[in-house]
Amino acid sequence: MAKKIVWSVRASKKFDAIIDYLETDWNDNVVRAFVQKTESVLDLLAKNPKLGTVENATKAIYGISLTKHNRMFYRIEKDKVLVLNMFDNRQHPKGKKY
Fold first, then answer.
1. What is the DSSP letter of 77?
2. What is the radius of gyration, based on Cα positions, of the chain?
3. Where are the domains of the chain?
4. What's the pLDDT band for 1 if we cut at 50, 70, 90?
5. Which helix (H) or strand (E) covers residue 10, if one does?
């Protein structure tokens, strides 16, 4: 059975910021491709939540690449996958917040 996908406030804001950036500096095709890729990955995670790599074993946080520039962090809970954050891989790694 597929798990429900739930977005944290932080992840939702980061996703919106990425979309705003893409709309401003790129074009509609890039925005559409990013949204489709995100939806595709979320569909996969709903069916197979352990698809990503373990990023923090003590906090049970997984990560998965959306694009070469963006990574999504999530936690698997009983009946849902909680999207915690999105991270631009070009940033300093100390900026990664789960």
1. -
2. 13
3. 4-88
4. confident
5. helix 9-25
DSSP, residue by residue, 15-67:
HHHHHHHHHHHS-HHHHHHHHHHHHHHHHHHHH-GGGSEEEETTTTEEEEESS
Contact between residue 12 and residue 89 where contact means Cβ atoms under 8 Å apart: no
| pTM, full prediction | 0.87
Contacts of 4 (CB under 8 A, 6+ apart): 46, 79, 80, 81
Span 35-49, pLDDT tens digits:
999 999 999 999 999
- Enter the tokens of residue 47: 């069916």
Tokens linked to 14: 């980061």
Is 4-88 a domain of CATH 3.20.20.70? no
